[in-house]
Amino acid sequence: MTQPVFWALVGMALVVLALYALIVHAHLLRKVLALNVMSSGVFLVFIGLARRTPGEDVPMAADPVPQAMVLTGIVVAVAATGLALALIVRLRVLTGRTTLGDDTGD
Amino acid sequence: MTLLYLALAVFLLLTLAAGFWRVRHGPTAADRMLAAQLFGTTAAAILLLLAEALALPALRDVALVLALLAVIAVIAFTASVKTPTPDQDSGDD
Amino acid sequence: MMLRPRTDRQAGPASSARADKGLPPAARALLVLALLAVFAGLVLAVLSLSEPAPGLAAAVDERIDESGVSHPVTAVLLNFRGYDTLLELVVLVLAVMGAWSVGRARGCAGNVPGPLLRQLPRLMAPLMVLVAGYLLWVGAHAPGGAFQAGSLLGGVGILLCLSGYPLPGWANGPALRVSAVLGVAVFAALGVVAALLPGGAPLDWPPAQAKTLILTIELAAMLSIGVVLAALFAGGRP
Amino acid sequence: MAGLSLLDWALDGVLALLLLWLAWRALSTPALFRAVVLFIAFGLVLALVWARLFAVDVALAEMAIGAGVTGALLLAALVRLAPPIGRGRAHGRNGERDGA
């Protein structure tokens, strides 16, 4: 197993782990955490596999295009997290709940 | 020399793991807080070692950013921990 | 009021049961099996990839001299794939619009800042702004750039918010809104100007002016990213 | 890329184990506050991984955003989700009143 494949596997393990937590947990803040871990896993797969094509100026550096896309993804993820948190706080103010789903709701 | 730096980085990573154990088991919130603060320091040291071992001087900038933003994390942490009042203990467990 | 939960763990048996045991054991086992199958499929997919992969590193390296900057990641972000970055700045503005439309900002954190915390911005904020400027500048030829510098500026905003630093009144007015959209506005305006040049196309920088244009856009983008992150932290419209 | 030394693998292995363990703890710890702290630590270790993978730009962004800004956002949300506790805290800084 080479290093890029190793890190891609770790990233996919993170994605699956976070997907499980996303489905199982009801608290919305926990779901936000799970989504963040999941996006980190995707980024890890991306950057890990990008190392199969070394960059030119720094011999060991990864392909710059996936790096730029992951950079964009990180900033979008934090913006989405901020919006999600604002919505959760609003839900809490309006209904007193921090979970979705009407079958288990109060 | 590179070998030594890498070995030191692995060693510091292991101490980081030990710190996580303290965060998990630390009896009081102050213990956890102190251990969390130590992560920043250790991680900065690991980054500086990696900067030499991997011949990537730009990693020093990452250590600089970490040093600055660790302060933000600690402030956010202290601002969100309940201030203990006489009638109500900071029951973290 | 005293007994209301702070976290889901302290929320008493009923609520924590709802948080943790929403699924019956059988469904949970099925879910684990399904996820293991997904993982196995992903592993097979990755193991079947060829190891020296054809990537875009060579293509970037070939055209880097025309991009105006010498750091490949910055060249990709601000020149080769400019649309990505432009639309990402739009996403940031949309996020802050969404957060502002659900409610007003109501303070930053629980505790009233003590004297130490109130003085901290005087020490930290200038340092962080300085490092942000450094990262922006160094991004032209080494790792760094608008995103990293902007998130440091966001950190400055969070620091000011948490320490209760008294901001001047204009900082919460139109200035805040203008700087939140400044990145998109400057990027799009310069992109349109580039299209109007003879032989130009949208977001296609002429090599001679590319470095100036990229640094201008990055400066505006850094401001916008910082302001948006700080506004998201404040949690609502001012 | 062929001959990764034992030490390189030790570094990768410890980093990966730490990363997975932190992610698992952050997603399964019952107390939300501790989960958020573990998530911040997860961002820190992830930044080290990016550094190790020679993606310095991503490491910089992850350090600033993943470990700094996201952590602060989550902690602030945690405070806002908690109702005012006791009488000493009831002076409206994070009260339930909606200013809209």
UniProtKB/TrEMBL annotation, chain B:
Entry keyword tRNA processing: no
Q: What is its main location?
A: membrane
Record's bilayer topology term: Multi-pass membrane protein
Q: Where in the cell is it found?
A: Cell membrane
Any single Pfam family the record assigns to this protein: MrpF_PhaF
InterPro entries from the UniProt entry: MrpF/PhaF-like
Record keywords: Cell membrane, Membrane, Transmembrane, Transmembrane helix, Transport
Transmembrane segments in this chain: where?
Answer: 35-55, 62-81
Q: Which family does the entry's similarity section mention?
A: Belongs to the CPA3 antiporters (TC 2.A.63) subunit F family.
Q: Quote the protein name from its UniProt record.
A: PH regulation protein F
